[in-house]
Design brief:
It is built from 17 helices and 4 strands. With 389 residues, the chain is mostly helical. It is found in: Membrane.
Length: 389
């Protein structure tokens, strides 16, 4: 089951048979088994997959902006490093907010707000002309998108029974790769142009700005689609909104079976015995949102520091740190590294320098007119990145 306090799923070895269980009363697992697995979950997987692919696109958009925007912002190597790091810094701060928001106001609300924040930051960043403002926009891009990236698994998983949950959540990971494959194709169509093809005037909209704008649109589209889906019944049960949760189960039952929702056999929902003990601790305490979030975060950290979880927490953090460090380093910097290989190769045909030497090459802002700065990215950079995911 999903523990909303810790943000993880804990599988309990319980198999419920809808034919033999007491149909009049039941908890989440009983009700979701009666609602069946079918068309609703498949459509939900498709929309959740779109959201997750959007997260992949949003998280790696800057990989193509770095070599393309260097002319407009006169970027140095240090500037590019700051630009690459800023969304990740935003993610660090966003992690502290979105989990608490999902627990207090619902998974659906948290995901929609995070997607809208990502869309707005992307929209604004495509128009700003000041580098520091662009950095701020990318900070909020990371701050927002990490909410959808992490909570979408909880949202999807809370519509699925234990026996199908791992299989469906595993399929959700496929959509991240789809997003990473789509991104070079979009970039190829917009950024694979020579400087003479770029319209230049005082208020011109450079191709990389169009690219950033287009990459922000999936967040808005995903938020609109999610708006028409229900809140998870598991969250509603945790908040003792049993009637609302039952209505959600009825809709799932009707969608999957074609039968009338009034024939849904579970008439009274009940809270699970081990459902979110931290929620019970805080339910009678009147606090504002921020104090409540900090209090829950403190309790969660104390729980994770206990002997029961500390070992697993350490192993998980170590593995995740290694994976993310290597993944984001490669994905964010590959276009820039390939571009440096090409530019140095054109100047020095006998160049035999490797990746480390190329990476340590410092780029200084051009002191000449913008017309001498070429933001063109070679086509082979895009074609190569299509195969990397």
């Amino acid at each position: 089951m999903f523990n909303s306090a810790s943000g993880v799923f804990v599988d309990i070895e319980i198999e419920r048979d809808p034919e033999t269980d007491d149909a009049g009363h039941g908890d989440f697992e009983t009700a979701i088994n009666f609602a069946r697995f079918g068309k609703f979950q498949k459509i939900l997987l498709a929309i959740s997959g779109l959201i997750y692919a959007t997260c992949a696109i949003s998280s790696t958009t800057l990989s193509f902006v770095l070599p393309s925007a260097q002319c407009d912002f006169r970027l140095t190597s240090v500037d590019k490093g700051k630009l690459s790091a800023m969304p990740l810094v935003g993610m660090l701060f966003g992690c502290c907010l979105w989990g608490s928001l999902a627990d207090s106001h619902g998974r659906k609300v948290a995901i929609i707000l995070s997607l809208l924040l990502d869309f707005l930051s992307g929209l604004i960043s495509s128009f700003v002309t000041d580098f520091n403002l662009f950095l701020a926009c990318r900070f909020f891009n990371g701050f927002g998108i990490i909410g959808a990236t992490s909570i979408i698994f909880s949202y999807l998983g809370e519509f699925i029974s234990i026996k199908d949950r791992d299989r469906i959540l595993g399929k959700l990971e496929i959509f991240w790769n789809i997003g990473i494959i789509i991104l070079p194709g979009v970039a190829w169509s917009l950024l694979g142009k020579k400087t003479i093809e770029i319209i230049e005037d005082g208020g011109s909209f450079s191709p990389w700005r169009t690219f950033v704008l287009i990459c922000s649109l999936p967040s808005l589209f995903s938020a609109v689609l999610l708006y028409f889906l229900p809140e998870t019944p598991k969250y509603l049960i945790s908040k003792k909104m049993y009637e609302k949760a039952r209505l959600v189960f009825q809709k799932i039952y009707t969608f999957n079976t074609g039968d009338d929702g009034d024939n849904f056999p579970v008439h009274h929902l009940q809270e699970e015995d081990n459902n979110n003990k931290m929620e019970q601790k805080h339910k009678n305490e009147k606090k504002n949102f921020w104090k409540d979030s900090l209090s829950k975060l403190h309790d969660l950290i104390e729980t994770l520091r206990s002997h029961q979880y500390l070992r697993y927490l350490g192993i998980t953090c170590f593995a995740d740190f290694g994976l993310m460090a290597s993944y984001y380093t490669l994905v964010l910097w590959f276009p820039e590294i390939f571009e440096r290989f090409d530019s140095i190769g054109m100047k020095h045909s006998n160049n035999t320098r490797g990746v480390c030497a190329i990476s340590q090459t410092h780029i200084q802002p051009s002191k000449h007119h913008d017309s001498e700065c070429d933001p063109f990215i070679e086509n082979k950079v895009f074609s190569t990145l299509l195969y990397i995911p």
